[in-house]
Write a structure and sequence with these properties.
By secondary structure, this protein is α/β, with parallel strands linked by helices. 31% of the residues lie in helices and 19% in strands. The structure holds manganese (II) ion.
Length: 413
Amino acid sequence: MKFAHLADTHLGYRQYGLFEREKDFYEVFEKVIDKIIEEDVDFVIHSGDLFETARPSPMALLTFQKGLLKLKGAGIPMYAIAGNHDVVMRKGAIPPQVIFKKMGLKVISNINPTYMHGDIFIAGLPYFPASHGKTFRSKLAELSEKASHHEKSILVLHQGIDKYFGYNYELEIGELPDNFNYYALGHIHKYVNDKFGKGNLVYPGSGEIWKTSELPDYLENGKGFVVVDMDGPKPLVKRVKVDIPREFIKRTLDYSNLESGIAGIKETIKDFDKKPILNLVINNVDSDTSRVYELIKEELGDLSLMIRPTFNMFDMDDPELVADGNGNVAATDIIVKQLEMYDNKDVDALATDLYDLLSKDKMDESKELINQFYEEFYAHEKDSNDGSEDIEEEQPPIEEKEDVQVTFKGDIQ
Ligand SMILES: [Mn+2]
């Protein structure tokens, strides 16, 4: 018995607001379906974030319908859970996957968490946020108990696990039941294939580049899905790569050599079938950045779908920035260097302390720090301003505002 495992296809995602990028996501999904049929599998598992939103556009829905019916025509059923993108966090809300039940999609849900495919026990749950951890853990325990009655079992989840995610995870690796043969996971957009439980734990990664931070993984593992053979004593996992429709190019240029840098990129991309996405880092910029951007656009605009420049007023490779013995760049030094223009030691201290607290997920302490800063430098300044009693206009204390949402660059959801 063989199955294909994919996740995080994010159909309907219009990256950078570009319809071309939305079509890229559809195109790669269609290729994945064709490759799955070529692989001659018995069934398919989709581990969530099938759609970009819980209310997909007709085009996103039709793209999925086409793929599902193509699989059905080849006699290949699909099992699917809802991910955090497909889910509406409201009681009684239903994910878009449910629309396709009549077309044969087997939705793994809180109501129907288990299936049998031949002798394989398939269990799973839709995405659970960390705030519902208690319910989630008790449901996992129930599924684990049921799995103990079967020789071959698969657990399907869409969650972040600390071992692979590091930040914003909902589950620690030790909390995952260890009696399944295969863990079909989704949520992390990079490819992970690890030994766990009675076999393997796999994140197939996203189908397309959903965030630029996925580039290093894409260059190493490509994008695609896996095919799993369950016949032996342990699952056999094979990675199947699927070409993405257009290239993502990331280059670092130095302002002093900007023209030759641009010429080099021109040479690389001029014969591409589809215009690439260009991510450019330009170091040591000592000129007006909008003028630099105009120049880049003039030279490369027609050859690329999108140019995303980052301008640095210093050199990221400056050896002075390598502060620790492990050869890592100290993030705090970069922050201070970036804040040089403000020439304010208090702002430097706030930024580095905040960085430190937030990287340790210390939310309350971070809020307290911001409050202190506000009290010390802002509230008083305002008080002693001009003596006029404009108290009503005073900002509310920060803690009364909405919860601070922190998203780190490189987060993968
Ligand atoms: Mn996702």
